[in-house]
Amino acid sequence: MKLRVSPGAGRAAVVGRHGDAWKVRVTEAPERGRANEAVLRLLADTLAVPRSAVTLVSGHGGREKIVELTGLGPALVERRLASAAALDRSRKDRR
């Protein structure tokens, strides 16, 4: 799965689609792998899988990343990420 990551955000969230990737935000700064680990934890929590089921394949030093997921089919991943993005949008609308 392709990701576009924004580190150092005010709060962590799955934002939505960014081209053929999913855009995510994490609060951690991009230093010493902290943002990468935060991305993997966010995905594991959002997708309701163990952290060990989410692996960073490429993009360790950039915003564009490729993550490998085990234990979930692509359709279920899409539904769960879309649901998380919709929840994030509804939270923004209430502000």
Structural commentary:
The structure is a single chain. By secondary structure, this protein is α+β, with helices and mostly antiparallel strands. The protein has helices spanning 34-47, 74-93, and strands spanning 2-6, 13-18, 21-25, 54-58, 64-69. It is globular, with a radius of gyration of 12 Å. The mean pLDDT is 93. Strands 2-3-1-5-4 form a five-stranded mixed beta sheet. The chain has a single domain (2-93), classed as 2-Layer Sandwich (Conserved Hypothetical Protein Mth637, Chain: A). The protein is built from two helices and five strands, in the order βββαββα. Helix content is 36%, strand content 28%. The termini are far apart. A hairpin with a 5-residue loop joins strand 4 and strand 5 (64-69).
Short description:
The chain has 95 residues and is an alpha+beta fold. Helix content is 36%, strand content 28%.
Helix/strand layout:
Blueprint: E1 2-6, E2 13-18, E3 21-25, H1 34-47, E4 54-58, E5 64-69, H2 74-93
CATH topology: Conserved Hypothetical Protein Mth637, Chain: A
Judged by helices, strands and strand pairing, the structural class is alpha+beta
Q: Return residue spans where pLDDT drops below 50 for at least 5 consecutive residues.
A: none
Look at the structure and name the CATH superfamily: YggU-like
Order of helices and strands: EEEHEEH
| CATH hierarchy class name | Alpha Beta
The CATH architecture can be given as 2-Layer Sandwich
